[in-house]
Amino acid sequence: MIAALIVVGVLAAAGLGAVTYRARRPRARYEGKGRILVPFSGALDPTVLNAAIRIARAEESMLVAAYLLVVPLQYPEEAPRRDQVAVAVPLLEAVELAALRAGVPVDARIEKGRSLTHALRRLWEVERFERIVAPAPGFSAKELAWILTNAPAETIVLRPTPGLAA
């Protein structure tokens, strides 16, 4: 008798779960034309962000904001870097908010590497982008030269006018 009640209860729960699952609407899938990568470490200049948002909106593309997190050699490569993540998350949230206000779909993420270029290379190995908008502030001249030489897509390096308000 008790076993029969347990079986009925399990079947009822499973049936309710199936009905609930079917009642959910599937997530809207992004059907845009492409993906625009904006890699950065530290604060992202508002002029660069606004330019990337304008390009993404004009091309009906998704903005991919990637915070590049450098893991020093004294730590294992997959070591959690809570101090850097605590800095990255509010910056990514600000980028997401600005893009969503402009009506641009956004994908924000953190990519780890031993250097900024290593993190970028890791990202480029697993994903495809139609454009890359690299902010000159935040990258050295050597890193920018590496980006321009090795980027797998059309690349724009933006250097905002110093002291000019966005």
Structure description:
The chain has a single domain, classed as Rossmann fold (3-Layer(aba) Sandwich), CATH 3.40.50.620. The protein is 46% helix and 20% strand. It is built from five helices and five strands. Strands 3-2-1-4-5 form a five-stranded parallel β-sheet, with helices on both faces. The longest helix is centred in the N-terminal third of the chain and has 22 residues, at 2-23. The radius of gyration is 22 Å and the shape is globular. The model is unreliable at 10-29 (pLDDT under 50).
CATH-derived topology? Rossmann fold
Biggest β-sheet: count, sense, barrel?
Answer: 5 strands, parallel
Name the overall outline.
globular
CATH architecture designation: 3-Layer(aba) Sandwich
Per-chain topology:
Blueprint: H1 2-23, E1 35-40, H2 46-58, E2 62-70, H3 82-101, E3 106-113, H4 116-126, E4 131-135, H5 141-150, E5 154-158
Parallel strand pairs: 1-2, 1-4, 2-3, 4-5
List keywords for this structure.
single chain, 166 residues, alpha/beta, Rossmann fold, five-stranded parallel β-sheet, 5 helices, 46% helix, 20% strand, globular
Task: Give a short overview.
The chain is α/β, with parallel strands linked by helices. The protein has helices at residues 2-23, 46-58, 82-101, 116-126, 141-150, and strands spanning 35-40, 62-70, 106-113, 131-135, 154-158. It has a single domain, classed as 3-Layer(aba) Sandwich (Rossmann fold), CATH 3.40.50.
